[in-house]
Amino acid sequence: MRTADTYSSHAVAPRARNFYLIPYLLWMLLFVAAPIILIVYDSLFDVDGKFTFANYGHFFTPVYMKMTFSSFWYAFLITAFSLLVSYPAAYLLTRTKHKQLWLLLIILPSWINLLLKTYAFIGLFGTYGAANAILETIGIGKQQILFTDFSFIFVSVYIFIPFMILPIFNAIEELNPSLIDASRDLGASPWTTFRRVIFPLTINGVKSGCQAVFIPALSLFMITRLIAGNRVITLGTAIEQHFLVTQDWGMGATIAVFLIIAMAIIMILTGNRTRGRR
């Protein structure tokens, strides 16, 4: 009887798991697969509603290739500066007494609406903002801070820093302190310990943080308009223009298709390397 009961319970368990998967599969179908299919479908029509593959050929013209390079370049810069700020910050957080409180204070700004934070920086970087007031006080004088590459990258890094710090912080927290002690006991310098022990063992957190920053940074459009004043043109800006201004939904959807492909490739490459290491 026990054997039969055990067998029946093992048979029911997979069915229960499959039942609980239904909401997840429905969510993925309705809000992931269906929008992607719709975007691919829209990319096959021109501005007059005629079926065509010309949008894909038009994407490979110099204008859009330059825009694609610009998008990847700015996404790389935003990710690199976010990493340079976030890794030391995450490492110091793990050494502080009230680290959970400090981590909460860092993450808290990400709960605020993105548009509100962007408008706040417009006030700070404006001609009569706090940044220019400080520059005047120290004798430098007013500068054109807003509508520059610097302001765009600065604001973007500020917005993405919490998404970079959190996975790195978790990776450093899981690091075995005895490995660091062993490295020092063997005569390794602090830099060697970081380069040969700490960083390699926390590389998965770095990858997750870079993925969480680089992928959304590829499609930024609101910050480019409000902070950079359209001086920075990215693929996200082009998508917005095609959908809302020129009404060329086909070309906008085509750009979105290539963005989705690029993001998927980045996620696949990062995931494969992570699984390989594990």
From TrEMBL:
Name of this protein: ABC transporter permease
Residue spans crossing the bilayer: 21-41, 72-94, 101-125, 145-169, 212-229, 249-269
Places the protein is found: Cell membrane
Species per Swiss-Prot/TrEMBL record: Paenibacillus albus
Keyword entries, A-Z: Cell membrane, Membrane, Transmembrane, Transmembrane helix, Transport
Membrane topology: Multi-pass membrane protein
Organism lineage string: Bacteria, Bacillati, Bacillota, Bacilli, Bacillales
Keyword Transmembrane: yes
Principal location listed in the UniProt entry: membrane
UniProt xrefs under CDD domains: TM_PBP2
Family, similarity comment: Belongs to the binding-protein-dependent transport system permease family. CysTW subfamily.
Any Pfam family the entry gives: BPD_transp_1
Domain of life: Bacteria
Coiled-coil annotated residue ranges, if any: none
Domain ABC transmembrane type-1: 68-270
GO CC, any one term: plasma membrane
InterPro entries cross-referenced by the UniProt entry: MetI-like (IPR000515), MetI-like_sf (IPR035906)
A GO BP entry: transmembrane transport
